[in-house]
Structure formats: structure tokens, C-alpha cells
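Encode chain A's predicted structure.
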Amino acid sequence: MSAAVVWRGVVVPVQTELENLGIKTLRDAMAANGGPVTKEGWRETFFAAHEGKSRSVTRTAFSRVTRSLIDKHLIELTGGRYTVYRKSASRGP
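Encoded structure for chain A:
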């Protein structure tokens, strides 16, 4: 699965598998919560899906993907809650 965002009329692809996992797990957490989620709520879903060799590796991966997705405007943080940016789109393989 790959993900992309339409930013000012231009489709910008997500660059890494980790970013794809971040978007997927955030969407899953939002679906389970019925809307935007706290970092802890998203982290739980991400940790369950990530196949890191250790908890430390998974914690680092989550930190990196959070920063990356915010920097790329693929997710938003508002009032302590995360949501997938409204223009984000997931496409099948």
C-alpha cells in the first residue's frame, strides 16, 4: 500500500514504508476512537503493528514517523489530538 497527499494541487507521495504504517495505524486508531486520537492512543496501535526488534526500536520509529508525517503535512496535531490531514489519500498496491 502506498499513500499520497494532494498539496496545493500536487500529489506528493509518501516516501517510506514506515510513513505508510504511521498513516495506516493512525487511521485505525481514529476508527476505533471515532475521531482524532491522543498520542498515547495512536502509539498503542502503532506499537501493535510495528515489527521492531525491541521496544526501544519501535519507540524510536514512532517518534521519527510522527515528526516526518507532521513535517510533510500528512497528519495534523490539534488540541493534543492527531488526525490524518484531510487531503491525505491511501491507494492500494
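The beta strands are 2-7, 10-13, 75-78, 81-84, 88-91.
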